[in-house]
Amino acid sequence: MENKNRLLIITVILAAMTALVSCAGFESATPTSTTSGHMGKQGAPEQDLEQDPNPEQGIPQDPEQDPKQSDPKQEPDDDEKPTPEPSPTPEPSPSESPTPTPEPTATPTSSPTATPTPTPTPAGAQSFSAALGSINAKAGVSASGASKIDADEAGLAVDVDMKGLGANTMALQAIYAGASCPTPASDTNEDGFVDAVEARSAAGKIFLSLDAKTTSARGTYRYSSSGKAQREGDLKLGGRVIIVHGVPADTELPETVRSIEGLPAHMTLPVACGKYMGQRRQ
């Protein structure tokens, strides 16, 4: 009887121990609630809440059981996601640099060529010209030539160009107030020569005396002179005549050939005459 009691006690002890071992194994196999920070949704056991003295600090996690470290595929929370950096704007490569648009080249404007302003002709400006022919060819000369006069308020410019005169001879020249050159008909004493006195009957008195010239060895001369008009009528030259005087000193002349101004007859004998024809200069 006593042995039965012992066996019964041993059996109860073994059964109790087996039950304890079974309970301990069940508790270790059951994981504690370690969901990632979402305890309120699943509900924590009361014993855990009673053991946590500071609920604001949260439940410490086992590093080996941290879902963030154990599951590398788990995406972080929105607060923990890194902010993406803005991608830098690519700079254009030298080959892609835009070709600058060429600025339009300004067409140079050709400046107009300045036209020289002609010098205005003074009011009343005129030109006169005369062709001179021979007189008294019997004296051994056959003179001819031309004369030109430009006249305006500023004065006169006279040009005379002669040929066919005696060599190295003093030539006197003057513009007469008359309108006609002497002709053979002017030889009133019929000595065959028209002397200075007879020439005046056709040409009139001397209007303007010109300087004397000495001819060249070929019997030519060129005369040019200018000056202010001394009188108002000096510009009225149209229709007036010019006479050139003078033959060589050894020319034989009859005693009936007269002279003027107390000069020898060979110096005043007319040899050429011309009449001025004038026109207003433009």
State the main characteristics.
6 helices; rod-shaped; 282 residues; alpha+beta
Protein described:
- The protein has 282 residues and is α+β, with helices and mostly antiparallel strands.
- Helices cover 19% and strands 23% of the residues.
- The protein has 6 helices and 9 strands, in the order ααααββββαβββαββ.
- Strands 1, 2, 3, 4, 5, 6, 7, 8 and 9 form a 9-stranded antiparallel sheet that branches.
- A hairpin with a 2-residue loop joins strand 2 (144-152) and strand 3 (155-163).
- The N and C termini lie far apart (181 Å).
- The model is unreliable at 25-76 (pLDDT under 50).
Task: Provide a brief overview of the structure.
With 282 residues, the protein is α+β, with helices and mostly antiparallel strands. Helix content is 19%, strand content 23%.
Q: What is the beta-strand fraction?
A: 15-25%
Rg, Cα atoms, Å? 74 Å
Number of helices: 6
Instruction: Give average pLDDT, whole number.
Output: 75
Q: Write the H/E string, N to C.
A: HHHHEEEEHEEEHEE
- Total E-strand runs: 9
How much helical structure, as a percent, in the residues? 10-25%
What characterizes the major β-sheet? Answer: 9 strands, antiparallel
Contiguous runs where pLDDT drops below 50 for at least 5 residues: 25-76
Distance separating the two termini = 181 Å
Inertia-based shape: rod-shaped
